[in-house]
Amino acid sequence: MQAEFKGVDAAKRYDVLSYLKKLNRKLGTTMFLITHDMEAALIVDKAAILRDGKLLEFDSNSRLISTLPSGGSVARFTIENLNEEKINLIKKFPSSPNIRIIRVGNEVIEILMDQFEKHLPKLIQFMMEEGIKVKSMSKDTAAFRRYFQLRIQEEDEKEKLIRLQEND
Amino acid sequence: MVKVENLDVKFGDKKIIHDVSFNVNEGEIIGFFGISGAGKTTIIRVLTCQINKKNWTGQVEVANLSPAHKKNHSKILSKIGYVPQLEELNLYYDLSPIVNIETFASTYGMNKKRAKKIAEELFVILDIPKDTWNKPLKRMSGGEKKRVSMAIGLIHQPKVLFLDEPTTSKLDIHASRV
């Protein structure tokens, strides 16, 4: 089972990471962190993302995040009675076909898309027209955790597509 | 410092690692991220001479030495350090931090005086209070124990340090299982 970190002991985790960075700075030791903990990306020079024995990415997390649509700008929406049907509806937003949606909570989704600033007002209007009730919205930049989720999701989708094509 | 080119790892008919390549420069911190079974630990096991050469192919170098050759293993092991996920795997709780360090340093053939000097330098960097250095580890907090465990991994002044789930405690593992 996956280790679950959120809220376990955040202060202790940050403490360990800051001491590792300090050791690295003082001693110059090369370090490999083998981890499930996405917060560790805060101190790494390069992140290796692995899936099913394949190295998907090996680069600095800032460079990886910059490859996301609009450099990783994210809109976080809290939506009343959020469900898969509503998420699929939002995916059909016509102005930005490259829209990426991640569900991050019971009623919360994060949305990335091309030309973020230009398309965001249109997206809000689209949701209103489709009867999707937005309780709150905020803007942010994607953290490494989000990049990792999207990258894995992308591979999962590719694999699903290949399987479907094989079955046809 | 670490070079991996076209690494494949296979156990029987099952291919575990597929054509992995990367380069790590001296002094870099690298994070290996992936869900369970992604292959993180397998790659590290190749780098740390824990997987027999018959199970892997490709070019691998750690501190300019290839783990492909058995004669390099002891040299590689002297240049790398390891910090396990669970502190109790490399700590004796009834012994003091200094005695713990001396015990591990002796396995690298280091004398007590040199080990103590390096340990004290590491303890200062790691903010381990001086009044705890000679008291049993069991009296220390979880965070302090973790830092002593890091100091043990660095006592022989390795070029490369491998850390297995450094931010996860025993409590976290228990929580994830409940």
3D architecture notes:
- The complex is a heterodimer of chains A (about 170) and B (about 180).
- Chain A has helices spanning about 10-25, 60-65, 85-90, 115-130, 145-165, and strands spanning about 30-35, 45-50, 55-60, 75-80, 100-105, 110, 135-140.
- The longest helix of chain A is centred in the last third of the chain and has 24 residues, at about 145-165.
- Chain A is α+β, with helices and mostly antiparallel strands.
- Chain A has a domain at about 70-145: Alpha-Beta Plaits.
- The model of chain A is unreliable at about 1-10 (pLDDT under 50).
- Chain A is about 40% helix and about 25% strand.
- In chain A, strands 5-6-4-7 form a 4-stranded antiparallel beta sheet, sandwiched between helices. In chain A, strands 2-3 form a two-stranded antiparallel sheet.
- In chain A, about 30% of the residues are buried.
- Chain B is an alpha+beta fold and about 180 residues long.
- Chain B folds into 2 domains: about 1-70, no CATH class; about 85-160.
- Helix content of chain B is about 35%, strand content about 25%.
- Chain B has 6 helices and 6 strands, in the order E-E-E-H-E-H-E-H-H-H-E-H.
- In chain B, the strands form 2 sheets. A 3-stranded antiparallel beta sheet of chain B has the order 2-1-4, covered by helices on one side. Chain B has a two-stranded parallel sheet with strand order 5-6.
- In chain B, a hairpin with a 2-residue loop joins strand 1 and strand 2 (about 15-25).
- In chain B, helix 3 (about 95-105) crosses helix 4 (about 110-125).
- The radius of gyration of chain B is 18 Å and the shape is elongated.
- Chain B starts with a strand and ends with a helix.
- Residues about 175-178 of chain B have low confidence and may be disordered.
- At the A-B interface, helix 1, strand 1, strand 2 and strand 3 of A face strand 2, strand 3, helix 1, helix 5 and strand 6 of B.
- Strand 2 of chain A pairs parallel with strand 3 (about 30-35) of chain B.
